[in-house]
Amino acid sequence: MPNANNDSHTTPSTNELSHVQRRAVSELLRVSPVADDLARRFKEAGFSLALVGGSVRDALLGRLGNDLDFTTDARPEDVLKIVRPWADAVWEVGIAFGTVGCRKSDFDIEVTTYRSEAYDRTSRKPEVSYGDSIEQDLVRRDFTVNAMAVALPEKEFIDPHNGLEDLAARILRTPGTPEESFSDDPLRMMRAARFAAQLDFEVAPEVVEAMTEMSGRLEIVSAERVRDELNKLIISDHPRKGLRLLVDTGLATLVLPELPALRLERDEHHRHKDVYEHTLTVLEQAVDLEENGPDLVLRLAALLHDIGKPRTRRFEKDGRVSFHHHEVVGAKMTKSRMTKLKYSNELVKDVSKLVELHLRFHGYGTGEWTDSAVRRYVRDAGPLLDRLHKLTRSDCTTRNKRKANALSRAYDGLEERIAQLQEQEALDSIRPDLDGNQIMEILGVGPGPQIGKAYKHMLELRLENGPMEPEAAVAALKEWWATQG
Fold first, then answer.
1. What angle do CA 3, 111, 343 make, to 5 degrees?
2. Mean pLDDT score of the chain, rounded to an integer?
3. CATH number for the domain whose boundaries are 177-255
4. Which has the closest alpha carbon to 54: 100, 108, 96?
5. Residue 68 forms beta bridges with which residues?
6. In this structure, CATH architecture of domain 1-168
7. Which of 246, 263, 274, 471 is deepest in the core (most CB within 10 A)?
8. pTM assigned to the model
9. Which pLDDT belongs to residue 225?
10. What residues form the membrane-spanning segments (predicted)?
11. Which residues pair with 242 in a beta bridge?
């Protein structure tokens, strides 16, 4: 590589470099028709174009998708003139930051003008100024593995910060000093944890040190940007790695303080399992149970399911430690934290509900629940039932194989009973045997609070006894109505 320097970090072998380069060639050949066509159009207009950042990194890792990032010396208005006649669709959502988006065939493309980006010390928004060279653009990027480019159509590899070596070594470093990089955009500290989780890379010691010393700078970043990075970390392949880095550097204290709070002090007299480590294990086990790709709702519920424990911890006289009603307290805390992070109301509701219900199964024992209790379990979980199954199973982290097997068998039994009842009674859509209109007709009463009470009573009967014949349902309604004065 023509960009070697004399820094002291370990240099990977030639075989390692040639391996990632071979993967990159095959990836770039796949996107070459679209990329080269676009590059020729920029060249004819008097501008340069290069594949850049995550696209180059992912090509070298053999995981390049259909989202392509380019950088250019053309200003946004010039980019628009070039891509509009060529692309299938164009959007200008990011044009204030110098980015023009477009779609061509199966590819989603972003073209960004060379730029430098810096935060005012008190501002939440980056100030954007355009640059004149690709070297100036690359030095402002977050990590060396994202500061590589391939100039098109010549296919010239540009790597002024030894990103290829760091990629082969699977390490995250910053192009300049970490302090300068994190001052420019404090969110990059979270991105370090996110990329560690996504790529299973290590973070260089000097970067970890800067993250720890500068964690307070994250306060100027908007909740929405923090939330988006946290989501990407949580749905990554190795979320435990990223979350542990957030906790160890102190960033989690600002982003998700409930997580480090799980590291409860322990003493020799009062023993309980490590709630923090248990939580990370539950998250990993939930990931293993996913069937159709990352499930953000399930993973958030696994991460937050025990956050009520620190507030409910009690030391009992017999030496045990109790956490009574931690699921109720935890559900309220989950709602509060997710609201502060600007999650959607629907997501807040779903995750909070799972946290609230995650202990319900432990009253099942060895199958003592009545059919009505099983119906209520299904009714309360609603569309979250499948996720509740996964969360409950993930919550078993005991090393006692006999206990773990007993819990697994008990939950197998509950799922079998649910399946049997669903087949018999359509539990997923439990309704009273009489609807609101029928209730009003039978009672001769118009809409109002009494009809709501009657509907609720009939629903309780349905949950308790299962389906009733129409005549029995009418008789039960009239019997209840007679008690209402």
1. 105
2. 86
3. 1.10.110.30
4. 108
5. 109
6. 2-Layer Sandwich (3.30)
7. 246
8. 0.80
9. 94
10. none
11. none
pLDDT digit string (tens) for 408-442?
888 888 888 888 887 766 655 567 778 888 888 88
DSSP letter string, 448-467:
SHHHHHHHHHHHHHHHHH--
* Amino acid type, 144: T
Identify the weakest region by mean pLDDT among 7-11, 104-108, 322-326, 438-442: 7-11
Name the DSSP class of 201. Answer: P
Q: Which residue stretches of 102-177 are H helix?
A: 134-139, 163-169
Whole-number pLDDT of residue 399: 81
Domain range summary for the chain, segments of one domain joined by +: 1-168, 177-255, 281-429, 436-482
d(CA 312, CA 330): 9
pLDDT value of residue 2: 38
Is pLDDT larger for residue 31 or for residue 336?
A: 336
Which residue blocks in 170-222 are alpha helix, DSSP H?
A: 178-184, 187-199, 205-214
Nearest to 134 by CA among 172, 175, 104, 95: 175
Report how far apart, in Å, the C-alpha atoms of 33 and of each of 50, 88, 151 are.
14, 15, 15
With beta carbons less than 8 A apart as the criterion, state whether 83 and 90 touch: yes
Q: Which secondary structure element, helix H or strand E, spans residue 89, and what is its range?
A: strand 89-91
Amino acid at 197: A
Longest dimension (CA), the chain: 92
- What is the average pLDDT across 31-39? 88
DSSP string, 290-346: -SSS--HHHHHHHHHTTTTHHHH-EE-TTS-EE-TTHHHHHHHHHHHHHHHTT--HH
For residues 197 and 238, the answer to whether their CB atoms sit within 8 Å is yes
For the beta carbon of residue 332, count every other beta carbon within 10 angstroms.
15
Residue 118: both structure tokens together: 């810096």
Q: What is the 3-state secondary structure (H, E, C) of 363-418?
A: HCCCCCCCHHHHHHHHHHHHHHHHHHHHHHHHCCCCCCHHHHHHHHHHHHHHHHHH
Note the pLDDT tens digit of each residue in 223-254. Answer: 999 999 999 999 999 999 999 999 999 999 99
CA distance 373 to 56: 55
Number of other residues whose CB lies within 10 A of the CB of residue 392: 22
Share of the chain residues as helix, strand and coil, in percent rounded to the nearest 5: 60, 10, 30
**Total number of residues shown for the chain:** 485
Closest by alpha carbon to 392, among 423, 356, 418? Answer: 356
* DSSP SS3 for 88: coil
Give the gyration radius of the chain's Cα atoms: 29
**What tokens were used for 198?**
């996504």
The DSSP code for 98 is T
Instruction: Give, for 127, the enclosing helix (H) or strand (E).
Output: strand 126-130
